[in-house]
Write a structure and sequence with these properties.
Number of strands: 0
Order of helices and strands: HHHHHHHHHHH
Distance between the termini: 33 Å
Largest sheet: none
Helix content: over 70%
Radius of gyration: 23 Å
């Protein structure tokens, strides 16, 4: 046996201890109903209750648009900043600042800016565009804005790294053949970038699907933003029904795996050759 492989042991122990064991423990706990019943009682209970079942759709309605918007918005920004641009370091720093703020400060900022007495509504009221404040927080839109703000930096950094791995000479060659900037992007850069965008979408989707603080702070946790993570939390810690909470967490994981699996399946049909760069 190669002794070098022994170096993997600490990492494997870490993964098993902090990931595999909690998942397996939660899985077996989900098959032990608190009030008795069949093996799948907790899962039947979840899907039989519209108030619980609808949390899947509510979470998808938030996570899918947020991930898609972040990926689409990151492409033109990263495309512009991938080369030598004046002030690139400063602009990149500004774009990733939301990572350092966290969801709580982001939520407080949204309430202060988009709330009924926030600057945004004050400006619109002042110039006469609206007669009464727009309702942009403590609802679906507040949570969506929060997910976009906190998720965009990750999407931008990932997209920038994928774009940096595409050899610029490929676009230059297309330009010499008469292709304008749109055709160069459409037929050269985008096909090479698409597999990376699929991975970016998966990561940002998982980040958005696990939304919890934003759904409470700038959403309506018992209404239109009662996401599946809130249902799991309330079942486990408010109702002290840990088996049901574990079952909801397992359902949450399955939904994420299904969406990510579909995206990766689509990714397998895309170009998977060399990009001509170092990335």
């Amino acid at each position: 046996m190669d002794r070098v492989l022994l170096l993997l042991v600490p990492g494997l122990v870490f993964v098993v201890g902090l990931f595999a064991y909690p998942v397996l423990y939660g899985l077996q706990l989900s098959f032990q109903p608190k009030e008795g019943g069949g093996f799948f009682e907790n899962y039947v209970r979840f899907f039989a209750d519209p108030y619980l079942r609808d949390t899947i759709w509510i979470t998808l309605r938030l996570a899918l648009p947020a991930a898609l918007i972040n990926v689409v918005a990151s492409v033109p920004v990263a495309y512009r900043l991938r080369g030598r641009v004046r002030g690139k370091r400063f602009l990149t720093t500004v774009l990733v600042v939301p990572i350092t703020l966290g969801t709580v400060l982001t939520a407080e900022g949204l309430i202060g800016y988009l709330g009924p007495v926030g600057w945004f509504n004050k400006i619109l009221l002042g110039i006469g565009l609206i007669d009464e404040p727009l309702r942009l927080v403590h609802n679906y839109w507040g949570v969506l804005f929060s997910l976009i703000i906190t998720g965009f930096p990750f999407a931008f950094l990932l997209t920038l790294s994928y774009l940096s791995g595409i050899d610029p000479s490929l676009e230059k060659a297309a330009a010499t053949l008469g292709a304008d900037w749109w055709r160069r992007f459409r037929y050269v850069t985008l096909p090479l970038l698409a597999p990376g965008l699929a991975i970016t979408f998966c990561l940002t989707f998982v980040l958005a699907f696990s939304v919890f603080p934003s759904a409470y702070l700038v959403g309506l946790p018992q209404g239109e933003t009662r996401v599946i993570s809130i249902a799991a939390y309330e079942s486990a810690f408010r109702d002290s029904d840990y088996p049901l909470g574990s079952a909801i967490a397992m359902i949450m994981a399955v939904v994420m795996v299904v969406v990510v699996g579909l995206v990766l399946l689509w990714r397998s049909t895309l170009y998977r050759g060399a990009t001509g760069g170092k990335g």
